[in-house]
Write a structure and sequence with these properties.
The structure holds 2 protein chains of 2 kinds. By secondary structure, chain A is mostly beta strands. Helices cover about 0% and strands about 55% of the residues of chain A. Chain A is built from no helices and 11 strands. In chain A, strands 2, 4, 5, 9, 10 and 11 form a 6-stranded mixed sheet that branches. In chain A, strands 1-3-8-7-6 form a 5-stranded antiparallel sheet, with no helix packed on it. In chain B, a hairpin with a 2-residue loop joins strand 7 and strand 8. In chain B, strands 2, 4, 5, 6, 9, 10 and 11 form a 7-stranded mixed sheet that branches. In chain B, strands 1-3-8-7 form a 4-stranded antiparallel sheet, with no helix packed on it. In chain B, about 0% of the residues lie in helices and about 55% in strands. By secondary structure, chain B is mainly beta. Classes of the chains: A mainly beta, B mainly beta.
Chain lengths: ~110, ~120
Amino acid sequence: QKEVEQNSGPLSVPEGAIASLNCTYSDRGSQSFFWYRQYSGKSPELIMFIYSNGDKEDGRFTAQLNKASQYVSLLIRDSQPSDSATYLCAVNRLTNAGKSTFGDGTTLTVKP
Amino acid sequence: GAVVSQHPSWVICKSGTSVKIECRSLDFQATTMFWYRQFPKQSLMLMATSNEGSKATYEQGVEKDKFLINHASLTLSTLTVTSAHPEDSSFYICSAKRGDRVFYNEQFFGPGTRLTVL
């Protein structure tokens, strides 16, 4: 079992729909959780981070964390073609020298 | 935000030569920097963790004598690929962690360096 698991996709949604990206992790000691977006041929960029159970909203993005279920998700509302990218989930624990463990990513395609 | 730069953005070299890649944090002090490699359509692979003023910590399977890492200051880390071969051709990406964000540990990525070894 991988430490951080994501559906590889591809996930395809129509423009304007809600895209839901999911991530599960195995280390119960994980303390902070991140979502990165990576366009093809580019490096990852940080979208959001969350460390408390519940929802965290930033514009069209909402991160959801459930530590009991070891589950973190990213919702993208009003999806746009420019949201088409690979989304990487990463988890971190304080004792791990600052290293984050990354999932393999979910590729999202938003169709006009 | 936090800006990380990398130089060069791309490099083509002959087999057997060495290539140095620089990673700089432009508007913050980075106590820790990370070096990743990514092959086409594959996931990020962490190569090493670089802490200012100390030796880098390499991930299992990464040859430390081939991939030399130096983190001489709080804003600069370098990766040198020594005696490069075609199989070293890849997308090399650095990231930096802000020293004042110990709990959150978010990483800010540089734009990457695409290395092609002929």
